[in-house]
Amino acid sequence: MGKIKEANLVRFLERHDVWCADVEVIAEGISGTLVAEFSSTKGSQFEMSHVYRKNMSREMDWYDNHLHNAYEDVSKELFGSKSPESKKWGKREDFEEEILAFGSIREELKEHFQLSRTAALFHTEDVEDQTYLH
Fold first, then answer.
1. pTM
2. If you average pLDDT over every residue of the chain, what do you get?
């Protein structure tokens, strides 16, 4: 498995009615910056739903326009095929755990998703059981 050199939480956003968090990742042996998309599941766990290669620098794309080819989904390339990169990175779950364990990523995600549950528009008694599915 490769090694995560840097991981930074860059934003929280809603995609297809699901709250997600984007974590920019620089990994050994992978050119460019990757963006791992995380969603929250029941029990304060996190699921990495997609991994994108960011093809545009923030200086060129400062407004982070996701509507053009600046982001390419590389999930299958890294984890779902027999390519050399997929063999190098191994299991998706291992990559996910390595990102979550980097610095304070897991704690930041936990804090944000807990706040979003608490601030839910509909304050029902089952707010703790609300699951963010992707």
1. 0.74
2. 77
